[in-house]
Amino acid sequence: MLARMVMQAPARAVTKPSDKALRDKLTALAIARGPSKTFCPSEVARDLSDDWRPLMDQVRQVAAGHPDLVATQGGKVVDPVTATGPIRLGLAGDRAQK
């Protein structure tokens, strides 16, 4: 009896992306969503690796220094590095005034 072979795409390895690469991805996603729309920072990490959780601290750190983004939690502006739990990112603007 022949063993059945299953072909799977190779998993993307977790490599530490550059801060610039993360900043570019964050910017592109924020612009694609548009004003007054938000996204989860894990969307950026998931785009880079199947094992995305180890990238989350770096994604949040880069988001914190991004001048065009604001992080919110429950509709209130928060620091993406110190906030615990899920956050949302979006283009800075009127949300940054809250």
What does this protein structure show overall?
The chain is α+β, with helices and mostly antiparallel strands and 98 residues long. The protein has helices at 19-33, 42-48, 56-64; strands spanning 38-39, 69-73, 76-78, 88-91. β2 (69-73) and β3 form a beta hairpin. α1 (19-33) crosses α3 (56-64). The longest helix is centred in the N-terminal third of the chain and has 15 residues, at 19-33. The N and C termini lie far apart (67 Å).
Shape: globular
Number of helices: 3
The residue-averaged pLDDT reads 88
Helical residues, percent: 25-40%
Radius of gyration: 16 Å
Q: Please tally the β strands and state the result.
A: 4
Q: Summarize the helix and strand pattern as letters.
A: HEHHEEE
Distance between the termini: 67 Å
**Ranges with pLDDT <50 over ≥5 residues?**
none
How large a portion of the residues is in β-strands, by DSSP E?
5-15%
- The secondary structure category is alpha+beta
Reported for the largest beta sheet, the result is: 4 strands, antiparallel
The largest sheet has its strands arranged as: 1-4-2-3
